Amino acid sequence: MAVSATVIGALLGLGTQMYSNALRKLPYMRHPWEHLLGMGLGAVFVNQLVNWDAQLQKDLDQMLEKAKAANERRYFDDDD
């Protein structure tokens, strides 16, 4: 998953830079270092997005387990 996220991010960064050059009617590969910078930032962004999504899912699972346990204590405990 990490390789595909990195490739997708790099393509996103490259596409953003090329689109920016096209909008300004500049040559696509003007200042190649900007393309490398865009690819690097895109790769970092998408990898962080994947990590954030995994952490969010873990936190959600923990919250649902706590809510389930609280509901079971509330409705199924025989403390009467």
TrEMBL record:
It comes from the Eukaryota. PANTHER family: EXCITATORY AMINO ACID TRANSPORTER. This is Excitatory amino acid transporter.
